[in-house]
UniProtKB/TrEMBL annotation:
One of its GO terms (molecular function) is SNARE binding. Component of the exocyst complex involved in the docking of exocytic vesicles with fusion sites on the plasma membrane. Keywords: Acetylation, Cell projection, Cytoplasm, Exocytosis, Golgi apparatus, Protein transport, Transport. Belongs to the SEC6 family. GO terms for cellular component: exocyst; Golgi apparatus; growth cone; membrane; midbody; perinuclear region of cytoplasm. This is Exocyst complex component 3.
Amino acid sequence: MQKSIAEAQISNMEETSREAVATAVQRVAGMLQRSDQLDKVEQYRRREARKKASVEARLKAAIQSQLDGVRTGLTQLHTALLDVKDIQSSLANVSKDWRQSINTIENLKDVKDAVVQHSQLAAAVENLKNIFSVPEIVLETQQLVEQGELLHAHRKLMELECSRDDLMYEQYRMDSKNTSDMNLISIYFEEVQGLSDELAKQLWMVLQRSMVTVRRDPTMLVSVVRIIEREEKLDRRMVDRKKQTGFIPPGRPKRWKDKMFEVLEGTVSTRIEGTQAVTRETDKMWLVRLLEITRKYVLDDLIVVKNLMVQCFPPHYNTFNRFFSLYHNGVSTRVKELTLEDLEANEIVSLLTWVLNTYKSVEMMGHPDLCSEFDINQLEPLLPQEVVDDLLSKYVKTFTSNITGWLRKALETDKKDWLKETEPEADQDGYYQTTLPAIVFQMFEQNLQVAAQIDGDFKEQVLKLCLKQMNSFLMRYREEVVAYKEEHLKDRQLPQCYIQYMIAIINNCQTFKESISSLKRKYSQSSDPFDSDSAIERTLSEVVKEGCQFLLDEVFLDLENHLNELLTRKWLTGSHAVDTICVTVEDYFNDFNKVKKPFNQEMTNEALRRVVVEYLKAVMQKRITFKNADERKDGAERMIKEAEQFKFLFKKLAAGENTDRLCGSITAIAEVFKLTDPTLLFLEVTTLVSKYPDIREDHIQALLAVRGDASREMRQMIIGTLSENKVSYSGTTQPIFKDITVPTITMTTMTTMTSMATAKLLK
């Protein structure tokens, strides 16, 4: 094996030598590449010799250093070997001596017992003075407790407990099963436990009044905390000794620190519960007062904790955060208790507003003096979300019931106003109105303001509920308006201000519409339409439309007799029916000026249309048949004059652009009557049909019948030709003749008319 290693080493050396020679040759070749370098051979040789000598010197120094290290190591190993042999020899001697002394140790048991007994007696002697003076110290400690000298009292108590505990510990060490001696010591020191309890009561009393004490006498609170800290150290010491010896004095561990925090928690709870000074029976605002007192007490107490009480407790107690949490938990408990009471709607809102907004605001837990010590965002919600949802649901249910009742009462009050003998009030622009919209939207506004105090989502929910109730209310409003009109028709003299209040009702609808838009802009962040929008819009439009119709019906009830005179013999011979119609319409529309735009404009247009339609109906009813050309001329000229009267009146009333066309229909028919040459009648009728394509064949027949000179053949020719070249109605303009019916003469009607004519002749 060694031979192989030697051969390998020799082989490696030879290879290294060859590599060195090859390297040297290569280097020399590099130096002597030119002929002029041969003169420097001797210089190169000396330089290389110096380098070789330097390398050899460094190599020798390195090898010498390694050899010195190896020599030192070998010397230390030799010394260690000698030391190991000495230790081995010593251990053998110790083992031999230990085996020889076992019997001797067993013979020293009596000495050991004597030592233990001596230790116990020494402890007894040391505590002998305290043992004999126990009654005196107990009395003195009792007096100190009563005088409020808590630190001195606790020092005396610690002396008594130390004497008792040392005696009991020594007795336990001597004979742990000897309970009689233990009981004897316990009986002798039994008053000590009573003193401890009495002192603890004093401590708890100070802690219960800590908010007052820290302002008046903070040293008292500091003394209490120091006593509790001492007891905590003794508890830890006794628990550690129990782990080692199994003995622990009676009453340990006291855990006064835990008890201190329990007392402080109870103090905070009592402080919060004691804020309720009134009840609902004595004060309707009891909850608002309770919450405000709670807010003030909690804020004041926490500021005191930060500025004063923190200094009375050790830093590791984390006093401020602990009290902050205690007050938060106490308030949470109190608020949960309040939610279990039968709260009214306004009380629910007050509570939720306080819980969701006021509590974390700068007015309370988010106060600048507190934010620097505690992150308000770490607080748990005062109320679980399900409790908040239940309260909101209860509020919505109560609010729905209340708002329904309020709206019903508001409508009943408004209905009573409709029967008054005095006109309704007018706004700043002179338009009639009642107080109903203001009352309704004041209710909505108040409830939405309250809902906005809770949160945005709930505000949206209440807004939707208000609009839903508004839709139901408007439907009842419409029913009452119709009933108001029906009652008026039974006696048109009552109520005296029917016209004025119907105008106010129409104007109220415009106010309702504007107020709804205002509420949505103010209280809704969404631009999307609400579910009830279309229904409200439709109901308001129906109330306005029906109200305007009722007003126009009132006008035309007064015009009925005068309209019946049109196109009769009396009218032809000289009637003032149209003059009366114009005066009556103008008089009514002086009142209708109190209707808000655009409704007054719409009423004017509708009145014009109805007047014209009634006039055309009088034509189509064939109340008169012209006997000759003079009558036709007089009748036509009268119709043209009356058409101009209508045109003048309604332009004065600011009717729309359709005035000329409507009044022109009367003039166009008058031109048919006025025509003197029957052969041109077809052309005149054709012109009429081209202007008013909604005119029907029965209308043409009625016109020809009133004219009185058209033969049967001519009527058939005109009707036939018009039928073949019928002009289609495009519907771009509002029809005039569409709803005008031409009465048909039945056999019964003919018989009746014949009988009436016969009776008239006989008479």
